[in-house]
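During the second year of the project, the team shifted from modelling isolated chains to modelling whole assemblies. The rationale, set out in the original proposal, was that interfaces cannot be judged from single-chain predictions alone. As a representative example for this report, we include one of the complexes processed in the last quarter. Its constituent sequences, exactly as entered into the pipeline, are reproduced here:
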Amino acid sequence: MSTAPLRLVTIQDHGVRIPSPSTLPAIESEAQLHGLLASLSGVDAVGVEARAAKLATRSIKKSTKLAAINLAISMVDLTTLEGADTPGRVASLCTKAMHPDPRDSSVPSVAAVCVYPDLVAHARKVLGTSSVAVASVATAFPSGRASLNVKLLDVREALSAGADEIDMVIDRGAFLSGRIGQVFEEIVAVKESCGNAHLKVILETGELVTYDNVRRASWIAMLAGADFIKTSTGKVAVSATTPVALVMLEAVRDFAETTGRVVGVKVAGGIRSTKDAIRYLVLVNETVGAAWLSPTLFRFGASSLLNDLLMQRLKQQRGAYVRADEFSGD
Amino acid sequence: MSERLDVRKTYKLLINGAFPRSESGRSYEVTSFAGEFLANVAQGSRKDLRDAVVAARAAQAKWWGATAYNRGQVVYRLAEMAESRRDELAEHVELCEGVKTREAQAIVSRSIDRIVWYAGWTDKIAQVFGGSNPVAGPFFNFSVPVPSGVVAVIADQDSSLQGFVDTVLAPICVGNTVVAIPSERRPTPAVLLGEMTATSDFPGGVLNIVTGLSDELAPTLAAHEDVDGIDLGGLTPATASELAAVASGSIKRVLRDRPDPAASLRRLRAFVETSTVWHTIGQ
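Output from the structure prediction step:
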């Protein structure tokens, strides 16, 4: 995709060379999209898994660990997506998002809270003018099985209630049966409805079966205008894994290098421990570079992760393991 | 036919009902009383303890939530398992403690009898340590013994089996879950007993055993804020005092007695809290 000398430079400084001005290809037909995806090389599954496993062994200790924990806290999309959610539960979640550890003001607030559309207004009210954004899942989350009109209405309602970010799901049924034009157009339509709001596109990688599909779906979403690509809904058996995140980060890197457009990545589902979170940060640093180590370009969708981050943070400070009930449940 | 290869045993940790090696990959050599090589035993680390405490915390509600009768059955089952492997236990006690064969057999018998004794205690704790209190008002007032929670045990250094049984089963039979560090130089009888819990319906995490160097491991448990009580009886008085001070940082219950069958009630009571309930008398 790029010339050999250029790759050498990018490998040395762990950075992505982003051409400017951006040259996003205009997609005019499904055939063109098929052609573009066909030009992507296949994923070396064994290689990806080995690299992800190798990077997971990186040891992050002491002050570096503390810095990583603080960074990870600032990247959390504190999430509650349960049928049993109530305005009260969302309110306590928002309070926690603004002040994860009320005793220690040096703990950064999280990036966003993530709720269902009907609870966006409640979240907005509690968060007020704080730096914490309101993200809302939309487009018939989590299955994505509704007509485009219903999906767009879902998005508009979330936005009018005050959402800053929209997490949409792709139509996996359409993707897996080869109707990628439909997948693409839906994302374009949702992106149009979003206006200035940030759009995160959930690929639901646990249902895409292969790494090749993950790479293709990533490209479709990025070509269609996604601001973020996100691994999972957290509602299926297989959620975020490090190899899948690696494939998506590579897609983001290649996309930035060829088109000049910078896209973020959100990993979600099943990330519960600080150790896991730090593994993802290492993966980001080694794949797309330190520019992505920011809440504007990398997020964790999680709920219980935050408490573990806070516990490990306190452990670093006190030198002893702390109780789980030092921090409020969700 | 060629000569049969030795099947050598690895003495591993017991964490959450599984038998992992130490996360650190370390092991240390244990010798018999006579100084001959006995076994390579896993040398647990800070992180193994952390995992063990997480397992113990997760298991505690379920263990205490089981009926006292059921807890008694589970502990009695351990005695059954120990009885059927008593020769193996006796062999290790003999090697570790340097006692005569007959004395080792007697230690194993006493240890198994102690297990049965603790099994009997599970459903009698409430009557003996609890009761109704006379109050001046229209109330029933009860005091009920409840477990402290997660108890760390630095087991006796000399009495490799009987001491271990006493220090570990006393907190378990009143409803605590335990993270135990067996005798540093004589850990194998405790490891064998741990293996027996796996076949006696002990829920995973109720008894966790982390073998290793007590100087390295005990301070971590003493400082660990998610441990509710600690038995420092297996340490020297000086070290125990030092760690009791550390344990006070997180308001732990601390026991410093060496196991003594004559003072068993004291040991049973060491990791018990008293919950008092006021209940109005209906008219």
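Chain A touches chain B through eight residues (CB under 8 Å). Chain A is about 45% helix and 10% strand.
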